[in-house]
Structure formats: C-alpha cells, structure tokens
Amino acid sequence: MPFETLFSLAGLIAMAGWLILLASPLIPTWSERLAGTILPLVLSLGYLALLIIPASGSGGGFGTLADVMQLFSYPQAALAGWVHFLAFDLFIGAWVCRTGRTEGLSFWRVAPCLPIIFLFGPAGLLAFQAIRAVPLKTARP
C-alpha cells in the first residue's frame, strides 16, 4: 500500500478517535474503549509495521538534529513519526477526558484542551494540568 494512502488512513483513524472524544460525555464507556484503547492500539500497530518493514532509504538517526532531519527525509520514517504523534496524542486526549471525568471536572473545562493536544501535544497536556490545578470557586449561599 502506498505511503500516501497509509498517511490518509492513519489520519482518518485518528480523526475518528478525536470525534469520539468530543462525544465522550455522552458515551464515556465507548469513548474509553475506542478512543482510549482500540484506536491508539491500531495506530501503534501501524507504527510498529512501519518500523519492521525494511526501509527503502538508509541514513540518519537520533544522535544529532542533522541525523534526525536526514532520517525524516525518507517517506517511511516521516510516516512512522507522524503515526507516532497521532497515536500518542490521541492516547493523551483520552487520558485527559478520563481523568477529567474521574476528578469531576466539567467537560467544558476539559474540552478546550483537546484541540491544543491534537495540534500541539505537550502544550495541551500543560493546559490540562493548569486547569486541574485551578479549582473553580463555588458560590456560597
């Protein structure tokens, strides 16, 4: 299967997971099963397959920035890196939804973190941790 097709397929799988997370207040059990477990595992299996399949190019590595840039100049390595991001960001998004639900946070406080996680990964995790650290004041009678 061409790498471009695999790229599109991985993106569709991840997008389905993110849409499920947005519906998680309505379907918490299914959200956890699908977006929190099954879809990240499917993406992880795809990532593993990309690592196992012999690469057409060689060179590059993780020792220096130049090595990483050279490594990602090969389509298979770039696709593996992208699928890695998709799987982990979706997993973290599901963790954020689950943790927010467990801690009694309103989904409306958690929801803004999801697009930040989707687009900027660690920045969204920081945003969620900040939201968790700031309790909402409750009105006194």
Please explain how this structure is put together:
The longest helix has 28 residues, at 75-102. The protein has helices spanning 3-22, 28-52, 65-71, 75-102, 107-110, 113-120, 122-133. The protein is elongated and about 70 Å long. The chain is 74% helix and 0% strand.
Mean residue pLDDT? 92
Low-confidence stretches: none
- Note the run of SSEs as H and E: HHHHHHH
Strand-residue proportion: under 5%
Radius of gyration: 18 Å
Structural class: mainly alpha
Number of helical segments? 7
Total domains: 1
Indicate the percent of residues in helices: over 70%
| Number of E-state strands | 0
Note the overall shape.
elongated
Distance between the termini: 64 Å
- In this structure, how is the largest beta sheet organized? none
Give the topology, please.
Elements lengths: L2 H20 L5 H25 L12 H7 L3 H28 L4 H4 L2 H8 L1 H12 L8
Kindly summarize this structure in a few lines.
The chain has helices at 3-22, 28-52, 65-71, 75-102, 107-110, 113-120, 122-133. The protein is mainly α and 141 residues long. It has one domain.
Task: Tag the structure with descriptive keywords.
about 140 residues; mainly alpha; 7 helices; about 75% helix
